[in-house]
Design goal:
Length: 170
């Protein structure tokens, strides 16, 4: 069960990796964050987690993306209950959008995946479905390089939120 920084620091290495994978599904990331323990406090762990996302190679980012459902879709069956719950909460605004917005999100998701080859990733927490759709439309015009930079930034934001949740620092 998740807890405070003492809990994370006390876990055996592989158990820490497994817990951290619920925050970001890159094994490289989870191993790096776990290996950097002990952390003096939750803020230090969160900062290290964000820095480690920013250092990931693109294949490692793609591994992390594989755990994220499309905006408006249900969490993937292979996710842990914690990840599925977090994903539902993060996407709650999209889940309650009207049918027209959901249809536009679905079409936009497909156009995005056709263009970039991976799921559209955005920190959905605190954003309405309309805001997410607007951002999706803007990002479809990005170059591949610019979009990779944006995806890594969004992954860092999501990871920051999830590490804070894992450590009860919300």
């Amino acid at each position: 069960m998740a807890g405070d920084i003492g809990w994370l620091n006390s876990l055996p290495p592989e158990a820490a990796v497994q817990e951290l994978l619920t925050c970001c599904a890159s094994r490289q990331w989870a191993q790096k964050v776990a290996a950097s323990r002990p952390y003096p406090d939750a803020a230090s762990a969160t900062a290290a987690a964000v820095a480690a996302v920013c250092e990931l190679s693109w294949p490692d980012v793609e591994e992390a993306l594989s755990a994220h459902p499309r905006i408006g879709d249900r969490a993937k069956a292979e996710l842990s209950e914690r990840e599925a719950t977090w994903s539902r909460g993060e996407q709650s605004a999209a889940a309650t959008a009207d049918a027209a917005v959901l249809a536009e999100l679905a079409a936009g998701n497909q156009a995005y995946e056709d263009r970039f080859g991976h799921v559209f990733l955005i920190r959905a927490t605190g954003r309405s479905a309309e805001e997410i759709l607007s951002e999706l439309r803007k990002r479809l015009a990005h170059s591949v390089l610019d979009e990779r930079i944006k995806v890594q930034s969004e992954l860092a934001d999501i990871t920051r939120l999830r590490v804070r949740k894992l450590l009860g620092d919300t």
